[in-house]
């Protein structure tokens, strides 16, 4: 896998590699279609390639809001391999937060307020608790589909997609 986003995104993600993938096997395409049908409306255009993020067991993602320049109202992520905990914290009201237990093969959808008004993060192993439940972290792979910002047309085929 290549790692270009890490540089562009600074230090939000630690212990990872990633790629942007636009060619998938037929079986994978069928799964991605289910993800897209669940998460996106018919009027939404998606980034032409899917983001695949491979976090090592000690890897984690610091709180951030995906850039509005490159990513529209919806982020949908399929979690594979290790379970993990995603925490959402309101950017204006830090006392308003919630945590999601991301089981392997689960899908989360961050849309509208969850996507714009809350930061999201993946907890590091030492902090990986869902309530009182310890959620030990192993290697985690996520497959993330994003909508394009409104007013941005579909990308040119062959162009590298922008990072979120
Ligand atoms: O791994 C995930 O599910 C989220 C990744 C993420 O927040 C990002 O790439 O901006
Ligand atoms: Fe993100």
Overview of the structural elements:
This protein has one domain: Jelly Rolls (Sandwich), CATH 2.60.120. By secondary structure, it is mostly beta strands. A hairpin with a 2-residue loop joins strand 8 and strand 9. The chain has helices spanning 5-8, 26-39, 113-116; strands at residues 13-21, 50-64, 74-81, 84-90, 97-102, 107-111, 118-122, 129-130, 133-134, 140-146. The longest helix is centred in the N-terminal third of the chain and has 14 residues, at 26-39. Strands 1, 2, 3, 4, 5, 6, 7 and 10 form an eight-stranded antiparallel sheet that branches. Strands 8-9 form a two-stranded antiparallel sheet. The chain contains three helices and ten strands; from the N terminus they run αβαβββββαββββ. The site of 2-oxoglutaric acid has 9 residues, from strand 2, strand 7 and strand 10. 2-oxoglutaric acid binds at residues 53, 61, 66, 77, 120, 122, 142, 144, 164. One of its GO terms (cellular component) is mitochondrial matrix. GO terms for molecular function: dioxygenase activity; metal ion binding.
């Amino acid at each position: 896998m290549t790692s270009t986003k890490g540089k562009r995104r600074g230090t939000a993600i630690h212990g990872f590699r990633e790629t942007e993938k636009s060619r998938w096997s037929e079986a994978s395409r069928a799964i991605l279609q289910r993800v897209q049908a669940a998460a996106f409306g018919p009027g939404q255009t998606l980034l032409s390639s899917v983001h695949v993020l491979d976090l090592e067991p000690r890897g984690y993602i610091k709180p951030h809001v995906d850039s509005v320049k490159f990513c529209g109202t919806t982020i949908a992520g399929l979690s594979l391999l290790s379970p993990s905990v995603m925490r959402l914290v309101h950017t204006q009201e830090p006392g308003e937060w919630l945590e999601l237990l991301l089981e392997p093969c689960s899908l989360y959808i961050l849309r509208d307020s969850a996507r714009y008004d809350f930061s999201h993060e993946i907890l590091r192993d030492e902090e990986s608790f869902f309530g009182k439940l310890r959620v030990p972290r192993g290697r985690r792979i996520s497959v993330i589909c994003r909508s394009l910002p409104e007013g941005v047309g579909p990308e040119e085929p062959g162009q590298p997609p922008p990072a979120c």
